[in-house]
Design a protein that fits this description.
Helix content is 68%, strand content 0%. With 93 residues, the protein is mainly α.
């Protein structure tokens, strides 16, 4: 999910950079380029929604993780203070 979010962020930034550069130069293909960028954004958004629907978005994954951590019984390990004064901290053969 992290890779998906980063990939979408990078691609959207790249598309924005191309769009900004295209606005600076007035040329014959500007309209075609803007249409192609719009189509690319829509296609990327559709694919993102498909993948997010399949695997969840960051908010639902975080909620799932928090619920899982609350459900799983925590293990309580002993502390050094609980060792006998004459005992070792590791098992002996």
């Amino acid at each position: 999910m992290i890779a998906l979010e980063l990939a979408q962020l990078i691609v959207n930034d790249l598309l924005s950079a191309v769009q900004t550069a295209a606005h600076m130069n007035d040329h014959a293909y500007a309209k075609l380029l803007m249409d192609a960028l719009k189509d690319a954004r829509e296609q990327i958004q559709d694919e993102y929604l498909t993948i997010a629907g399949r695997y969840g978005n960051p908010q639902t994954l975080m909620a799932f993780y928090q619920q899982l951590m609350n459900t799983v019984k925590p293990k309580h390990y002993g502390t050094v203070a609980q060792l006998p004064a004459s005992g070792t901290a590791w098992p002996t053969p």
